[in-house]
């Protein structure tokens, strides 16, 4: 651990979603190792229960009176908008109490970009604030121009967006679960830096140097790319219990022989899509490990609404778990490919292990990431349109047994090495983190 200095305190405010809590807690760990005290302010939603690993951290709950059901019913965009309206007063109370408790020794509030109420509350106490973006720099840029293209989204789907090569209008981060006005409202607020003194972002300049350059130009406050954070600090942050039996199953498989199928913490599939997927996987003749989260098949608690045929097909070549230790799975030598929804964390975790991907994005920034995987980093292939068994079989075989997949695997390994260098001493993300820490020490 670095020199303890005066142990300045940082207050971190994650948005309640697995894909945001994990990088926020990895950031917390990294900053704690640099000598800062940490307070994490959460809402009751997707509450991350601190384990032994976080015994030095203070956890507080922001009081609000939203119904529990909002988490499931509203979807991410509408929930974020509601949290911003409802949590300001509660968070102000929290900050007031923390100031009394810690003798005014709070250096900074670091808030998830979608929880801008935290900035407003911090400002009222003259506490500096920092935006933490847990998505890519390119997705951030897309959000910053989102409202300019509202007409084009419908009419020009397949056309390239000027100055956003290789993104098409269809790749822009919209959402099926919220009206365009709400998406626009959230994005407009999220990209507004207000009084924030800097932006930290979970990416690396070796992945997105030109987007980072544009972001830096447009924001005019320091932007620190300090990721991939899971390669900087480890923090067990799973909201669901990990089934480690899949590692024993992987131990019995040959090198690069398994396709890992994981769609993150939020995506939903229809029953017919699950059946197309499993039939395509079977037809590809490859072994597969598939995470099917309880509640992730519409109309089914877990697997019970699926036709019997499902289990018969899985028995032969597959292994199903409710939730996997994903980073460990991706690091396993038996895993040769990742069929993913392309959430930013999953993307970074796969890049960090040199695993090539098949992308089937559902919504939001996943579409941006999928396009980058295919056209910029060239280590992924996107399956577009309706999911049918033929497309699944073809994509899996291309990735797992064809030369095209082998070339992608080699590129993925090269990119993995670049990422590893970027977080090591002297690397770009490492240097950015040092600069950010030095900046925090001046506050
Ligand atoms: N994850 C996991 N086990 C699983 C599935 C997902 O630990 O079985 C983790 C994964 O490692 C990642 C996060 O959940 O860190 C999902 O975040 P991502 O940004 O990829 O997608 P989201 O869930 O936000 O759609």
Automatic annotation (TrEMBL):
Keyword terms of this UniProt record: Glycosyltransferase, Transferase
Molecular functions (GO terms): quercetin 3-O-glucosyltransferase activity; quercetin 7-O-glucosyltransferase activity
Segment forming the signal sequence: none
Pfam families in alphabetical order: UDPGT
InterPro entries: UDP_glucos_trans
PANTHER family documented for this protein: BNACNNG37570D PROTEIN, GLUCOSYL/GLUCURONOSYL TRANSFERASES
Family listed: Belongs to the UDP-glycosyltransferase family.
Full protein name: Glycosyltransferase
Phylogenetic lineage: Eukaryota, Viridiplantae, Streptophyta, Embryophyta, Tracheophyta
